[in-house]
Design goal:
With 242 residues, the chain is an alpha/beta fold. The chain has 7 helices and 7 strands; from the N terminus they run βαβαβαβαβαβααβ. Helices cover 45% and strands 16% of the residues. Keywords: Oxidoreductase.
Length: 242
């Protein structure tokens, strides 16, 4: 199997894991629909990728935006083989600091964004009797640490959603969940809590992976034989303990 000829939607495609994934899949011969909020980044990436890329400004927290994204990809490519639900944010904070707006935003992006992505393509994939849903969770979706209660909760939810989808569509749709450890992306830029920022250097004082490392895992999952599926892929830097 190969990613060549596959039509793939990638959310959160303007930077980091999403951009690297789109690049890697396009290099392998896939057609990619880039989705994110930052139009300038999408245009730049699509230009860099070339004719195998299209783009659409999309807010994953907006259900209509996601439905329109799915329809646009189907119209442009004629089909959608894969969706990579990658968009996510990580504004860590202690619960006692009551950063409620950040909690709400994490739930909207990290949980609803995944659900809306699935909803945008599921009927199409079921009708075609094939498809692949790849959800990007986190190692935080396998455990919980101080300041990550809400973030970990959203990533545990991604795990549950993936497992439910797998069982509901077994034999038709392949479902893969990626659990990255520390990756050198813009994800940490969403952290605004002063208590967390004060200690973040000590907490993550090891070399992170690059977006390209996770992109390789996504490509590997897509390119695996059709009669099998890599349900869970955990990827940590060699120095990471948690």
């Amino acid at each position: 199997m190969s990613a060549e000829g596959k039509s793939v939607i990638v959310t959160g495609a303007s930077s980091g894991i999403g951009a690297a994934t789109a690049m890697r899949l396009a290099e392998a011969g896939a057609q990619v629909m880039l989705a994110a909020r930052r139009e300038d980044r999408l245009k730049e990436l699509a230009k860099e990728i070339g004719p195998n890329a299209s783009w659409r400004v999309t807010d994953v927290t907006n259900h209509n935006d996601m439905l329109s994204l799915g329809q646009a990809a189907m119209k442009h490519f004629g089909k959608v083989d894969v969706i990579v639900n990658n968009a996510g944010i990580m504004p860590l904070s202690p619960l006692a600091n009551r950063r409620v707006e950040e909690w709400d935003r994490m739930i909207d992006v990290n949980i609803k964004g995944v659900l809306y992505g699935i909803d945008a393509v599921l009927s199409h994939m079921l009708e075609r009797k094939e498809g692949h849903v790849i959800n990007v969770s986190s190692v935080a979706g396998l455990m919980t640490n101080p300041t990550s209660a809400v973030y970990s909760g959203t990533k545990h939810a991604v795990k549950a959603i993936s497992e439910g989808l797998r069982k509901e569509t077994a034999g038709i749709i392949r479902v893969t969940t990626i659990y990255p450890g520390k990756v050198n992306t813009e994800l940490g830029h969403s952290i605004k809590d002063p208590d967390v920022l004060a200690g973040i250097g000590d907490r993550f004082n090891y070399t992170g992976l690059e977006g390209e490392d996770i992109a390789e895992a996504v490509h590997f999952a897509i390119a695996s034989p059709r009669n099998m599926v890599l349900n869970d892929i955990v990827i940590r830097p060699i120095e990471q303990v948690l």
